[in-house]
Amino acid sequence: MSSRTLFIGWDGADWSILDRLTSQDLMPHLQSLRREGSSGVLRSTFPAHSIAAWTSFLSGLPSADHGIIDFRRCRPGRYIPDVPHDSNSIRHPSLIEAISEAEKRVLSINVPMTFPPFPMNGALVSGVFLPPGVAFTHPPELQDELAAWGGFPVNGLEWAEGGDLADLFQEAALMTRQQTMIAERLIDRERWDVALVAFMAPDRLQHAAMQLLDPRHPAASRQTDPESPLTQALYGVYRELDTSLGRLIDKASPETVILASDHGFRPVWQNVVPNRILEELGVLAFRAGRNQLRRMTHPLRKGLSRTRLGGRAKGSLGVEGTIDWSRTEAYSPSAPCHGIRLNVRGRDPQGIVPTSKVDSLLGELIQGLREWRIPTGDRGFSMVQAAEDVMGGPPVEPGLPDLYFDPGDGVALSGEGPNAVQPSGRRTGEHRPEGIIVTRGDEGPISETIWELPHRILRCVGVDHWRRTPVTELRKGESLTLKQESDIEDHLRGLGYLE
Fold first, then answer.
1. What is the pTM of this model?
2. In 190-297, where does DSSP find H-type helix?
3. Tens digits of per-residue pLDDT, 70-79?
4. What is the C-alpha to C-alpha distance for residues 417 and 428, in angstroms, rounded to an integer?
5. Does residue 388 lie within any of the structural domains?
């Protein structure tokens, strides 16, 4: 039996925030959907961030099986990830392709990890993260129609590099309104069995404004009252999302509705820098004087990275160039990966750790990180485990960490900085695994993990087969240019995912 299914994704939505807003009658459509259906907590993948989680949504696999745990991957011979992930990184047929192969029609709008666009049975508007000026729809002519309707807002909401919060809130409300208008038109015009529509605003705002949303943040008591214009402008974005929810359900008239988030959110007020901790533990050495390269102005680094020579030099201009690999036994490839990789002889470019020492070094690091404390005396990490204990087996992709960790309460991760602990700056919120799910019209039990959701959607539209043969060729036989890579990295930096 098949039922038309509308999936709406609110990136980063969390019941701890939504419950406070619904108690003030600010989100009536969400309240109505919960009354008419079933709701619960949807657990994200590990690590709990958008690239890993939306890849799990598209692939129906946990991160242990799809291997995409970072916003970038490593080029051969590199230590630090430096190539942005995109739709070509997903090596198994996606949910969109599974529906298409079953001769059902899909409408996909703004779902992350769908750029570059790829052939499918229906219409696709690629989701974040996109370089400017590129084709991002299937079929290609759809992009001209979107432009005639005022354009589909992509990227945006870059909160990490300054700017006024009020302006950020206004941008989020306008983007949500425009994205909803275009989604309504496509839902009304296209033939579809499954419609997937994603909104990024909750994630972006909660990174920068958790002190206005969560009383657990230490700065909450010092912020303006809930009736202030700034707080009301923030609440207005959630009202806009709620209005969008009602409008899309009314326009689609689906038999099944699923509202979900890829992860939740928690308040933070301090950063820890794993590589500085490893330096304290005596297993990582920085190169004398190389930190001066990190002080190069951003425009100059940006310009260099867009040249062929600059692209090759990225390793020496970034974190990779500040580390003395001849004296480094372990390092954190990036903050988003939540992990540490050993510099193993014969495996890594300049490896120095003999294979006979791997197990003992891992044990020492796990113990050291579990015991490591921030200045308040609290643990810096809530979880530290070997990779196989977290992922259930050895890495499925080269270059992945050998152990993983989760930060403690109030703690975010940073890839750079002179000290092991430092203030989190503009970042007042960070991801947590507990997201949201609400369903109406599907009598099955509530999905517990994000990688179960696509299987639920397939069941709703009567698809019982998902081809699992690995994709051996790129979906779009093109690779990103150095300029496009740099543009995506600039956007990721504006969102606080790169430094």
1. 0.94
2. 201-209, 229-252, 274-280
3. 999 998 899 9
4. 17
5. yes
